[in-house]
Amino acid sequence: MFDIGLQEMLVIGVLALLVFGPGKLPELGRMVGRALREFRRASDEFRSTVETNLHINDVDPIIAPAPAAVEVASTPVLPSEADGASAVGDGAPAVAVEPGEPFCAQRTSRLFHKSDCTWVTRIPEPERVYFKHVADAREQGYLTCPVCEPWEPA
Question: Using one digit for the tens of pLDDT, what is the confidence trace for 12-70?
């Protein structure tokens, strides 16, 4: 990485021994090791959180408006059909679209949003989960979006 050879390492070691002394040198090494480990853990956690919640590596799907989507939305979804079976019988899964619900989340994400949040537009319609109340979303393990900060008036 820095192209340091054996002689350079020996000079650095002798200088550190002279400056810090033999008693403080092991403690200093442990302290630097802990700091580097904590920094690496925090940066990995931050990167994974951003990639998971914002789907940075995913390509935005191009969704063309289809008149069939209105048909599916107006068709009531029975509890027995909620697992993806179609009421029409054409083999296509029925999508429970509830645009009137105030809160929305993505099935594979950890955050939920207000329905008018800009991040909701990035969630594909089949992946959306709708909630009537903040408590419902929190019961299922979702966290509030830091951008729109969903809340309910008391």
Answer: 889 988 998 888 888 888 998 999 999 999 998 888 888 777 765 555 556 655 554 44
| CA dist., res. 94 & res. 82, Å (int) | 8
The domain defined by 1-58 carries CATH number 2.30.29? no
52, 109 Cβ separation under 8 angstroms: yes
**How far is the C-alpha of 54 from the C-alpha of 119, rounded, in Å?**
8
Nearest to 113 by CA among 56, 54, 60, 57: 54
pTM of the model: 0.34
Return contacts of 148-153, CB within 8 angstroms, 24+ apart: 148/113, 148/114, 148/116, 148/117, 148/118, 148/119, 150/102, 150/103, 150/112, 150/113, 150/114, 150/117
| Three-state secondary-structure class, residue 145 | coil
- Amino acid at site 86: S
Integer-rounded Cα radius of gyration of the chain:
26
Interval 106-129: pLDDT, tens: 888 888 888 788 888 888 888 888
Where are the chain's structural domains?
Answer: 1-58, 67-144
